[in-house]
Amino acid sequence: MRLGPGLLVTAAFIGPGTITSASIAGANFGFALLWTLLFSVIATILLQSMAARLGVVTGQDLAQALRTHIQHPLFKPLAAFLVISAIGIGSAAYEAGNLSGATMGLIEIFPQVATQVWTPLIAVFSALLLYSGKHKVVESALIFLVILMSLVFISTLLMAAPPITQLLAGFIPSIPEGSATTVLALVGTTIVPYNLFLHSGILAAKHDKHTDQRKVIKQTNLDTGISITLGGVITLAILSTASVAFYGSEVGKISAANMAMQLEPLLGNAAHYFFAIGLFAAGLTSAITAPLAGAYAVCGMLGWSNDMNNSRFKLVATAILVFGTAVASLGLDPINVIIFAQAANGLLLPIVTTYLVWLVNQKSVMGDFTNSIKVNMLILPVLLLIFGLSSYKLISLIL
């Protein structure tokens, strides 16, 4: 079997934000929040599999399906506004952080090169891939980078050698005092709404009504399960390594920026390069996928083509890339912009997941490929927790 679309989703959610969130979780709470990561991976596999199945069966991405099947005069424009504003602008906001993360990694590797050089170069490379208009070219580049990330962070985990008993204990649910925000961050960096548009869009672009859909869905589910699990292992490696290095020590505020330096006593001089390369790969993969996801969402809701060769699709993707490049190149702190994206994510995630579950349960949409009762029983607690976490996140941001 050939891995592909699922790895693009992994490339999208393993970004600088994931590295930072997992580092902070491990440094501040040890292995106690590993259960949160396990929940997030299972929930992501379920949701992304549904989005992929929608694309395979209907030949439409999630945005196109919403536009086609929401007919209520109030809900249709509301859905369009939420998707275009929150997903489109949210993707652009995260793009600034992605480019900044990739730049940070290169600065650590090549300190003698002027910092202002890297962000435009990364943006140009991302634009060339996007403008190629070829899924295989983009997939191949991202698969290489995901493999690179995997080697970097899993090797680091093996070098750190965390105690197995402590790792296993972390999968028992608990919420240590002061960990609620970190729990939200771990969930939020894994279950990302724009990835549902990205995954369904990639599969919709490959739609062929003459193929055996049941066979394609089976292959897609396997691809999704393996790819998302790999992303979970990468995140587990980052969290565990941070736990071994920092938990219980007086190291101050932990972030991806100072993690390599702090790990030198543990991993030696190699730590500097290990994390710099991993951070660069994580930033670059997300920098390529965020414009793609935003373009699928915006174009789908506006009724435009979702073909990567289409000029409007390229225009939307480029606008997202240019916005992120401008913020990252000006040396501005992207935190305030990302806070807005988190607020949009908190508002949109429960709405998008509810619409997705509704769509894949409609016989008129999915035919014989609607959700089974078992899948609906599994997804119900996921939806309830997503609503609860999103409500908490929005309230905390407002207050």
From TrEMBL:
Annotated localization: Membrane
Membrane topology qualifier: Multi-pass membrane protein
NCBIfam families: Nramp_1 (NF037982)
Main location: membrane
A Pfam family this chain is assigned to: Nramp
Upper lineage: Bacteria, Pseudomonadati, Pseudomonadota, Gammaproteobacteria, Alteromonadales
Membrane-spanning residues: 32-56, 77-97, 109-130, 142-164, 184-205, 226-247, 273-303, 315-332, 338-361, 373-395
Keywords for the protein's UniProt record, in alphabetical order: Membrane, Symport, Transmembrane, Transmembrane helix, Transport
Name of the protein in its database record: Nramp family divalent metal transporter
